[in-house]
């Protein structure tokens, strides 16, 4: 998302007028935003330097946003200073500090979720036969989990917005760690279903909470890279989980317990520890680091917190100059019914929601069933867990590269489509090879599918960028993740018991969805290009005075404003 106001406010215009082309020095010297020259509203440079003109450079704009921050009781308003200047080296140093103190712990918390939500390692250790279950029963349990996870997404996100993720998240982690440990006691299919349902309720809402939480600390052009790091949890936790499982599952027989029971118990205890520590390690905002546990953690944070007053000022003002809407609500302010409705009816976000349902559906069955498939093909429990690791390593490398490339070339949807383009030839191969093909060939194809360039981070960052308000961002990220869970529910029921172990019918369905997704990415790209062009046309019809008046008086909200463009 990029704000565009008038020339009087030193903001970029989304026009592509001859006057701009004939005088490029004007754009270079006065506009902090550069747009490309094909009039599709694509931002080339969205960085506001501390010594440049910015959104608060004019009295009228400053007065408007100051009033917004006071009315919302924005937690960083006491550090809001339009005159504050800082050097790039100061900002870079503070960014490293945020990565170490905020991003690292968010990564660890997500690891505690992903470690226990993926039960394929337990399934590889005879969980299904010992509970009298088959593949269809396993699918039903996964469907129940995804459904309750989905049902908790929006309520969990809204509760977190009200009480703060720094309060909500540690409680949730302790809860899901306890539930995971209780899975070690199940003795029947019913127990399996019940614990999967409760686990989904406990974990739902965490991911949108963390996306919103990270947006408090990082600018729009910094968030996608951090989200790519965030999603490296998936491959790295599976690698770590496979290594842990190799040891935990060998505990079979101790106290007459199966290995999968020890696995559930120990993974649950690990999550409980992370949840307890999160009470100490999660600040509510950059200006509230000394208030963790009401200041009782001074041994960890010091009497004044992590940042000096100047550092807090830099961190607050750099965020607001990048996106002033990030202060239109405080971090203990709930999204009311009107705000919820406005976010839900924002149809410009719906194409991304549709991608959330379908884009990664082909990947999920192969990933969830890999260990079970390998075990069915004759590999031992240990071999099945170890053979999953190469795919996770490829996944890790691909996700970092694709998101880095997306920001480097300033292209999102086309590169996001690469996830399905990558999978297409491998699905063709796995559908075409005969049953007599070597297991190692089948394993190689499955590994390549599981090494997908996972572009989920690009789409999540698009929701955050295109929200243009804290309320819409909170609701939009939750709805997007709900969309993803709808896809997960469908994915959990594609591989059927009568189709194992090669799942030819299921893979044909996944191949068809993969082809359709490539076309869907292209249509979504076209939609946002056309929307930006229509907004540009309406904006350019206004005179300079009308533009200034529009910005000060408009009732349009979020991305309905004419002076902002969609990132795509």
TrEMBL record:
UniProtKB keywords: Membrane, Transmembrane, Transmembrane helix, Transport
PROSITE patterns: MFS
One term of GO molecular function: transmembrane transporter activity
Pfam family for this entry, one: MFS_1
Polar residues biased stretches: 14-28
Annotated region described as Disordered, given as residue ranges: 1-37
Biased composition (Basic and acidic residues): 1-13
Localisation per UniProt entry: Membrane
Keyword field contains Cell cycle: no
GO CC terms: membrane
Highest taxon above the source species: Eukaryota
Transmembrane segment boundaries: 198-217, 229-249, 261-286, 347-365, 385-406, 413-433, 439-462, 474-494, 509-528
All residue ranges annotated as the Major facilitator superfamily (MFS) profile domain in the record: 100-534
UniProt membrane topology term: Multi-pass membrane protein
Name listed for the protein in its UniProt record: Major facilitator superfamily (MFS) profile domain-containing protein
Organism: Venustampulla echinocandica
């Amino acid at each position: 998302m990029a704000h565009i106001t008038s020339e009087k406010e030193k903001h970029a215009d989304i026009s592509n007028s001859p006057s701009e082309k004939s005088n490029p020095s004007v754009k270079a010297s006065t506009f902090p935003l550069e747009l490309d020259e094909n009039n599709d509203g694509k931002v080339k440079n969205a960085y506001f330097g501390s010594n440049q003109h910015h959104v608060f450079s004019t009295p009228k704009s400053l007065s408007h946003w100051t009033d917004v921050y006071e009315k919302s009781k924005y937690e960083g308003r006491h550090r809001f200073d339009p005159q504050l200047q800082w050097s790039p080296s100061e900002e870079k140093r503070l960014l490293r500090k945020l990565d170490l103190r905020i991003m690292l712990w968010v990564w660890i918390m997500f690891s505690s979720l992903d470690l226990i939500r993926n039960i394929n390692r337990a399934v590889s250790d005879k969980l299904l036969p010992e509970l009298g279950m088959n593949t269809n029963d396993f699918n039903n349990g996964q469907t129940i989990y995804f459904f309750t996870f989905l049902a908790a997404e929006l309520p969990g996100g809204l509760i977190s917005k009200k009480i703060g993720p720094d309060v909500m998240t540690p409680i949730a982690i302790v809860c899901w760690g306890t539930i995971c440990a209780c899975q070690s006691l199940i003795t029947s299919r019913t127990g399996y279903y019940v614990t999967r349902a409760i686990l989904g309720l406990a974990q739902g809402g965490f991911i949108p909470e963390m996306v919103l939480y990270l947006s408090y600390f990082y600018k729009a052009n910094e968030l996608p890279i951090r989200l790519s790091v965030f999603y490296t949890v998936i491959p790295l936790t599976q690698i770590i989980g496979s290594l842990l499982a190799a040891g935990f599952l060998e505990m079979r027989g101790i106290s007459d317990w199966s290995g999968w029971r020890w696995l559930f118990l120990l993974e649950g205890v690990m999550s409980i520890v992370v949840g307890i520590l999160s009470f100490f390690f999660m600040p509510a905002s950059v200006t509230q680091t000394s208030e963790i546990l009401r200041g009782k953690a001074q041994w960890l944070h010091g009497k004044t917190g992590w940042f000096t007053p100047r550092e807090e000022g830099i961190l607050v003002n750099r965020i607001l100059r990048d996106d002033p809407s990030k202060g239109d609500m405080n971090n203990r302010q709930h999204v009311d019914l009107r705000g919820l409705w406005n976010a839900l009816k924002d149809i410009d976000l719906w194409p991304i929601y549709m991608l959330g349902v379908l884009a990664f559906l082909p990947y999920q069955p192969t990933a969830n069933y890999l260990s079970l498939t390998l075990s069915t093909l004759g590999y031992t429990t240990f071999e099945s867990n170890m053979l999953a690791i190469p795919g996770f390593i490829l996944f890790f490398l691909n996700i970092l590269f694709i998101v880095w490339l997306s920001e480097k070339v300033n292209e999102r949807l086309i590169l996001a489509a690469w996830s399905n383009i990558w999978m297409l030839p491998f699905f063709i191969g796995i559908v075409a090879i005969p049953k007599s093909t070597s297991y190692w060939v089948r394993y190689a194809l499955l590994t390549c599918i599981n090494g997908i360039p996972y572009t989920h981070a690009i789409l999540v960052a698009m929701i955050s960028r295109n929200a243009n308000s804290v309320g819409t961002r909170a609701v939009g990220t939750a709805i997007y993740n709900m969309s993803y869970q709808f896809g997960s529910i469908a994915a959990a029921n594609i591989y059927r018991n009568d189709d194992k172990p090669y799942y030819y019918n299921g893979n044909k369905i996944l191949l068809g969805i993969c082809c359709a997704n490539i076309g869907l990415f292209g249509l979504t790209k076209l939609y946002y290009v056309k929307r930006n062009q229509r907004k540009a046309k309406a904006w350019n019809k206004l005179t300079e005075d009308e533009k200034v008046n529009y910005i000060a008086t408009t009732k349009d909200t979020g991305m309905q404003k004419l002076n902002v463009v969609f990132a795509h």
